Amino acid sequence: MKRAKAVIVKEFAHILRDPRSLSIVFIMPVFMIFIFGYSISYDLDKIQAGVIDLSRTDLSARLVKAFANNRYFVLQDIEAVRGGPGEVERAETALREGRIRQYLVIPSDFTERLREGLPAEVGLVIDGSDSNIANLIYQYNELILQDFMMDIRGLQGLFKVGTKVYFNPEAKSAFFFVPGLVAVLLLMITAMLTSLSISKERERGSIDLLFISPLRSREIILGKTVPYVLVSFLAGSGILAFARFWFGVPIRGNLLILAFFMLLYVLTGLSFGILISTTAPTQRVSMIATLLATLLPSVLLSGFIFPLESMGPVLRAIAWVIPATHFLRIIRGVVLKGAGMGSFLWEGLFLLVFSVVFLGLASRRFARLRRARR
């Protein structure tokens, strides 16, 4: 026991001298509980919706008010999709661009038919790209419409709802999750490729040759990033082709648009990986840091599995600084909805800014390493 006691004391000394391991043991579980506790939820509120009121009567106004005064829906840009020529086209464009999740169409003869004791049907169009969310939205609509019929006597049996589900009418989960997997895997692969580049040279000692070279730090960082762009783009194209021909995921949009944004996304992942490589001392640390920084946030906080609408404001703000969040909107919008380039200008701008910032920080970090060696 005396000999064992000596080993025990030695191990405690090692543990206390390694604060990084202690932080992982105590801080990581709390962080995971915080993330999972707030992100694992399919309860939705403040769903963006539109209403096309062609009747414009007191009764139709009461129906619009029923959708406006609840915790489930927020009538976004209601005046822009209400009345006037082209209202349905505007609503469909908003649905395709992801600005709304559904829209309700109240026909012009809605009130007149009900007053005459004839059945009147309203149209409900739901974004079905995510089958789970679409099912919840349908249930919320049923609750609101049922309360509306209960408030107004005599509507039972006359009030009907015609529902259409766009983009994924068969409610196949693969159509939603597989494009998301493409985004998650592509970010992880691209970041992993460049995250090992500088740390590998640091372990081998060949980094000193770069330090004494006449090249500027930003030129070295750019030179280490560019060769992987083509490799990563081809890998992403292969993943997308596998999703198309093996899982049967339809590609309804323009492939050139998707290729352009995928190139930006690849550059973002490579830039992030090279930044990690300038910070991590070894390849092992680089690999672990890359997995934690790309896989975990991309799966939990990007909207890949859990909808952003179900998250709190803090996590939703964090989601906006995750590159996968923006590319997920792009790939699902182009692949499933056939949206055009104009629908994702902000997302493309975010990816471009991420790339420039990551490359700039990596260049500054590498320059600092060079000065420390002199």
Write the layout of secondary structure elements.
Layout: H1 2-16, H2 19-39, E1 47-53, H3 58-68, E2 73-75, H4 87-96, E3 102-106, H5 110-115, E4 120-127, H6 131-151, E5 159-166, H7 173-195, H8 197-204, H9 207-211, H10 217-246, H11 255-279, H12 283-300, H13 313-319, H14 323-337, H15 345-373
Helix pairs in contact: 3-6, 7-10, 7-11, 7-12, 7-14, 10-11, 10-15, 11-12, 11-14, 11-15, 14-15
Walkthrough of the structure:
The chain is of the alpha/beta class. It has helices spanning 2-16, 19-39, 58-68, 87-96, 110-115, 131-151, 173-195, 197-204, 207-211, 217-246, 255-279, 283-300, 313-319, 323-337, 345-373, and strands spanning 47-53, 73-75, 102-106, 120-127, 159-166. Helix content is 65%, strand content 8%. Helix 3 links the parallel strand 1 (47-53) and strand 2 (73-75). The longest helix is centred in the middle third of the chain and has 30 residues, at 217-246. The protein is elongated and about 90 Å long. Residues 77-81 have low confidence and may be disordered. The chain folds into two domains: 47-166, abc type-2 transporter like domain (abc type-2 transporter like fold); 173-373, no CATH class.
Distance between the termini: 51 Å
Secondary-structure element order, N to C: HHEHEHEHEHEHHHHHHHHH
Order of adjacent strands in the largest pleated sheet: 2-1-3-4-5
Q: pLDDT below 50 for ≥5 consecutive residues: which ranges?
A: 77-81
Count of individual helical segments: 15
- Give the helix proportion (percent range): 55-70%
Task: Give the beta-strand count.
Answer: 5
Number of domains: 2
- Apparent shape: elongated
Q: Describe the largest sheet.
A: 5 strands, mixed
Q: What fraction strand?
A: 5-15%
Radius of gyration over alpha carbons?
A: 27 Å
